Amino acid sequence: VYESVMDSVAAQQRENVEGQMDFFSMAANNDEKSNSVKEIPLPDIPEFTPEELMTMEKATTGLYLSGHPMDHYRDAVRKLHAPTIVSIIEDFSRENGPERFTDGQRITIAGVITSSKTKTTKNNSLMAYVMVEDDTASMELLCFSRVLETCGAYMKENQAVVVKGRLSVRDEKAPQIMCDSIYPLSTVEGGIPEPQPKQKTAAGETLFLKFPSIDDPAIRHMKLVFQMFPGKSVVKMVMADTRKVYATQALLHPALVQEAQETLGHENVVVK
Question: Which one of 46, 92, 194, 266 has the largest count of C-beta atoms within 10 Å of its C-beta?
């Protein structure tokens, strides 16, 4: 749609010298020109869904303007008896200490994932910092390797999720949740699914990674990541300087692919 409109505009501009119009001659021949102006065809396309509009609003402005994705899940949240995120934050902000919640308390919340970032810990295991927000506030989740293995596929931006874990309040920081599980909020209607120990990708998929050289520090880092995701999918590591290719195997888990993209850059990570 966008390309067809732009093609029409470009065609009109080519009829003028370098896309310019003579202002004075336009005024003198206004009636004649007004009859020769071409109409740009605008195709009839369906309206965006509310979810699509909100996703575009968030990407463009950083805010949801026409609503919030959680509006669609109000009944599901009520069934979970999940507290709002702002109620947790405000309770821990009381001068005399929290009254409703406690550090280490098991809790269930619901919200939309707004960001997710993985890192390697000092113990050479993978973890993720995931931000979840409802229509009241946002909270950070700490997700370690066990959770990534079972629930990493659901840690996508704009995914509405139900989160189970333990509250963690440290060093005057905002409350966090040590996550035990994350699942799509849409599963609440049919019951929360059991964790799956392995999440395999389609047969035949290969992960291609491009490294500057065999001596690059990213080699050692990615080898540690491969150890955390054992599997049978082929991983081919291409060295940019020598063009040599080294092969290994791993589980092509979304968390592994994301870690590779953040380590090497999206342009150096291909799955096919």
Answer: 92
